[in-house]
Design brief:
single chain; 270 residues; alpha+beta; Porin; 5 helices; 17% helix; HotDog_dom_sf; hydrolase; PAAI_dom; Thioestr_dom
Length: 270
């Protein structure tokens, strides 16, 4: 197991979020992510939705470690359940770091389930799961980061910059093309796209709510096809129901080809 946290390069999706590997083993796998500066670019509200990136990394890797030599893993589902008061824990210490401890859940068959508990200090602020399916692939994908540019020398601090997001006049969240945010398969990192879905759903739920915002409690994501960034790629949220104390919204990630690549459902409470 790794004794000293190992950070990822800033010209990688994980490095953009400041994720570090704390303990590298099949059970448990432990990684961390700083929580400072996480603000929804549409609402201006603090968010811990980007913990989906940490869940995807940690819980996904314990599934990946169970693959055969000729297999690779593809994420099919991701969940993030946020504890009541999680935002208060982060607000009490803006420099706080979330730590995910991930373990395999059950046996592996054609798919596998990994789960993780996310803590800040001694407080559990969230739990998450990743369901992966195994595909046949000979050998390993070589991990090659995009060339380091002058813009990558320092990690961005604003969430919109970290995720390469852009808002249009209707507050649609567009996913700009940036190879740094791609995974080893050349598509938008699954944790990044999950976080984008949470931002869009939360923005839809909080449209017009200034004084009594709804805070995300659960995020459930299904990965339907590869999500490629480009001119048409965007995250779109739609409200199913919103009340005084709770709300439910769906979100879609639409790829560069105009096809829906991911869907999500978000439940939020005041």
């Amino acid at each position: 197991m790794t004794e000293t946290p190992v950070t990822y390069p800033v010209n990688s999706a994980l490095g953009r979020f400041g994720i570090a590997q704390v303990a590298d083993s099949p059970d448990p796998f432990v990684s961390s992510m700083p929580l400072a500066g996480l603000v929804n670019p549409v609402t201006g509200l603090p968010t811990v939705g980007p913990l989906a990136v940490l869940v995807d990394h940690a819980a996904g890797l314990v599934n990946h470690y169970r693959r055969a030599a000729d297999e690779w893993t593809v994420t099919s589902e991701l969940t993030l359940e946020i504890a009541p008061g999680a935002l208060d824990v982060v607000a009490a210490d803006p420099s706080s770091v979330a730590v995910a401890t991930a373990r395999p859940t059950g046996t592996r068959e054609r798919s596998a389930l990994g789960s993780c508990e996310i803590t800040v200090g001694d407080t559990v602020i969230a739990v998450g799961t990743v369901r992966s399916v195994y595909i046949t692939h000979p050998g390993e994908f070589a991990q090659e980061w995009p060339p380091l540019t002058a813009d990558d020398e320092q990690r961005p601090t604003e969430l919109a910059d970290i995720m390469a997001l852009e808002l249009d006049d209707t507050d649609v969240i567009r996913q700009r093309e940036n190879p740094v945010l791609n995974n080893s398969l050349g598509i938008v990192h699954g944790g990044v796209s999950a976080a984008g879905l949470e931002l869009a759903a939360s923005a839809a739920l909080n449209a017009g709510r200034v004084d009594e915002p709804l805070h995300t409690a659960s995020l459930r994501v299904n990965y339907l096809r590869q999500f490629l960034a480009g001119d048409q790629s965007r995250y779109v949220g739609s409200v199913l129901r919103v009340g005084r104390r709770s709300g439910v919204a769906d979100a879609q990630a639409v790829g560069a080809d105009g096809e829906v690549a991911l869907i999500a459902r978000v439940t939020a409470y005041r």
